[in-house]
Design a protein that fits this description.
This protein is mostly helical. It has two domains: 106 residues, no CATH class; 121 residues, no CATH class. The protein contains ten helices and no strands. Helix 6 runs antiparallel to helix 10 and helix 7 packs antiparallel against helix 10. The two termini are 25 Å apart.
């Protein structure tokens, strides 16, 4: 990767995540374009370009970064509500990174090599990873639906859809571990999950719940291991 692109991204990460206190964020959300913290935040990003590049010759890059950063952040503050705050956060970051790539391309003739998207191996990897997310969750739900324990109103309630997302994360991690030849990490992941689950199951004193969790865990790990090994075979 080009060093100029890395430096601009580094400046963005420091400015947005290290040098932007939560009080500044709250002030921008409350006062919108009247917030002095918005302009101070943009000034921080401009200054960081000079600091990281160690040269005032990068003033054009710094100015463009500042202007685009202001526009993106200003639009975010104007349209942000409590309901869309999380979505706008990710849109905001995508727009910032896109503007960084654009500026890098204009001033440093940068070029991103995306030829790997034309390779079969890339699409096999993407297909394998995606299959282990929602498709596997739905398949597992269909398989173990008949063993679903009755809901007890007195039992502690878990976070909404937490189990589904935990399963997706563990399968994706297994996918990464196997494709990078770290099979021992799969065992560590299974052991870690078992430890966390042990306390809940011990307190529940419910044999059906224990068996249900065990079936779900082994099924999730089993599917992830099989798909990961098949993917590894196809891209070899």
């Amino acid at each position: 990767m080009d060093i100029y692109l890395v430096k601009i991204i580094l400046a963005h990460l420091i400015g947005d995540f290290f040098l932007q206190p939560n009080s500044w964020v709250k002030d921008k959300e409350r006062k919108k374009l009247k917030s002095g913290k918005l302009y101070l935040h943009v000034l921080v990003h401009i200054t960081l370009i000079f600091v990281i590049f160690l040269s005032f010759k990068a003033w054009k890059v710094a100015l463009c970064i500042g202007v685009l950063h202001f526009v993106i952040d200003a639009l975010k503050t104007l349209f942000q509500t409590k309901k869309n705050a999380r979505t706008l956060f990710f849109i905001d970051q995508v727009l910032h990174l896109s503007s960084i790539v654009l500026i890098w391309h204009i001033f440093y003739r940068g070029y991103l090599d995306i030829s790997y998207f034309n390779e079969v191996k890339t699409w096999i990897l993407i297909s394998g990873a995606l299959f282990l997310t929602m498709p596997t969750s739905i398949i597992m739900k269909v398989i173990i639906a008949k063993w679903l324990p009755e809901n007890d109103s007195e039992s502690p309630q878990s976070l909404q859809n937490a189990g589904k997302y935990i399963g997706i994360l563990e399968r994706v991690l297994i996918f990464v571990f196997i494709l990078t030849n770290h099979f021992e990490a799969v065992g560590f992941l299974l052991a870690a999950k078992s430890i966390f689950r042990f306390g809940d199951l011990k307190e529940a004193h419910d044999l059906k719940l224990t068996e249900y969790v065990l079936i779900g865990t082994l099924l999730s790990f089993g599917i992830a291991i099989i798909i990961s090994m098949l993917t590894q075979t196809f891209i070899a």
